[in-house]
Structure formats: C-alpha cells, structure tokens
Amino acid sequence: MDKRDFMKQEFIGLEVEVVSSAHPGYRMNGVVVDESKNTLSIERDGKARTIPKKGNGFQFTYGSEKITVMGSEIQHRPEDRIKKTR
Predict the structure, then answer these.
(1) Residue 57 near residue 17, CB atoms below 8 Å
(2) What stretch of H or E contains 79?
(3) Domains of the chain
(4) Both ends of the chain: CA-CA distance in Å?
(5) What is each CA distance from 31 to 7, 58, 74, in whole angstroms?
(6) Are 76 and 37 in contact (CB under 8 A)?
C-alpha cells in the first residue's frame, strides 16, 4: 500500500510509534485511541497520551506493513484527510 492510500484509512486502532520528535517525552509506541486535527491520542499500558502531530514523525503498522508519515502530512481533521489526499 502506498502512503497516499494509507492516509485515507482510519488511524484509530492502529499500532503507532513516534519515531521522531524534538520532545523526548513524546517518543513512545502504542495504539491510536483518538485523533483530532492537531493531535493523536496514543494508549500504552492503559494510559493515553495526547501527542501533537506537528513536528513529530509517526510510524504506523498497517497489516504487515510499516508506514512512516510526518505529522504535518496528516494535520487535518480525520474526516477531511480522505478528501485532501486524493
């Protein structure tokens, strides 16, 4: 699956890792439990943390594939992301 097709998918429920961030506290992995225009909420060990999309790189696991995207590429409301990536 190419990156454009991936960005049309729902992120909630996917495994994700914050692979690049200027803030060391944001580097984590877990499951996406919520998404807004500017943030992803990632749950790990029963606790959710809200991570800003801007300035961070995310690696999602989709099936057997790992897809890396910069937060600025997905900085849209989830329902608008599908329209913007056509």
Answers:
(1) no
(2) helix 78-84
(3) 3-84 (2.30.30.210)
(4) 15
(5) 16, 12, 17
(6) yes
